[in-house]
Amino acid sequence: MASFVPTDPHTLEDQRLYTRARLVEVSCLDCLATVGVKKNSEHHTSIQWSSDALRHCPEFARMAARPEGRDVHEGCPRMVASIEAAVREGKIPIGAEDGY
Fold this sequence. Notes:
With 100 residues, this protein is of the alpha+beta class. The chain has a domain at 24-88. It contains four helices and three strands; from the N terminus they run αβββααα. The two termini are 26 Å apart.
């Protein structure tokens, strides 16, 4: 349960900017799961997984089936490769705009 639920319009807009602004949809080249991606720099990539995308990812399913489960910071290498391909093709802009 959230300890703080924003209601102020300015706070809600800040939340939207930090979590959803400039997200580009990228589909995995293998399983077709679709995530939102933002690259603030060459070394920083933000990936927003929806519950639907998580359900479609066979790599995450394999990781979750391991006895120790999936580490929360462990990503899908297939999606990473798909994002890198989208960057090379110029589909994902690199660089923050207005701090976001």
